[in-house]
Amino acid sequence: MDEVEGHIEALRDKDHRVRVTAAAALGNIGKPAVEPLIHALRDKDWRMRVAVATALENIGKPAVDPLVHALRDKDWQIRATAAQALGVIGDSRGVVPLTRLLGDEGRTVRREAANALGKIGDPRAVEPLSRLLGDESVRVRVAAKRALEEIQKK
């Protein structure tokens, strides 16, 4: 069994720590790991789904579509991590789904979506981010302001 197959097998382990470690290792392998990681995004354990979203961030552009899908996860931790990952990757395919996330009920999710939009730097995010300047959360307002400043610089 080669290294990739061993990590894929470990994604099904009963111990979530083994699964999380395998996801991280697969994230370092790159594109051949995208499909098994996409499947692992359905894990019942939210900690595992966070680890998978982080691993997909390491893979980059081939992981944009599964990360966009993860923005709809029921758990806020996964939505926030997927938003952060999309910001790191910086692909404009994330702009529209991230702007939808600016209305999320979770302030951490809104903040991470704003941060990601700032990193991507697409002018389509200016209007939705501007509306966020009136958010109830100070941290969200600060993130929106910084994101708008980053977009303006580009």
Report what the structure shows:
This protein has 154 residues and is mainly alpha-helical. It contains 10 helices and no strands. The chain is elongated. The model has no long low-confidence stretch (mean pLDDT 94).
Percentage beta strand:
under 5%
Shape: elongated
Chain oligomer state: single chain
Count the strands? 0
- In angstroms, what is the radius of gyration? 16 Å
Q: Tell me the helix content.
A: 55-70%
Helix-strand string: HHHHHHHHHH
**Count, helices:** 10
Helix-strand makeup class: mainly alpha
Instruction: Give the termini distance in whole angstroms.
Output: 47 Å
Largest sheet: none
Q: Show unreliable segments.
A: none
Q: What average pLDDT do the residues reach? A: 94
Please tag this protein with its features.
mainly alpha, 10 helices
Quick synopsis:
The protein is mainly α.
Topology:
Layout: H1 3-10, H2 16-29, H3 34-40, H4 46-59, H5 64-70, H6 76-89, H7 95-101, H8 107-120, H9 126-131, H10 138-153
Helix pairs in contact: 1-2, 2-4, 3-4, 4-6, 5-6, 6-8, 7-8, 8-10
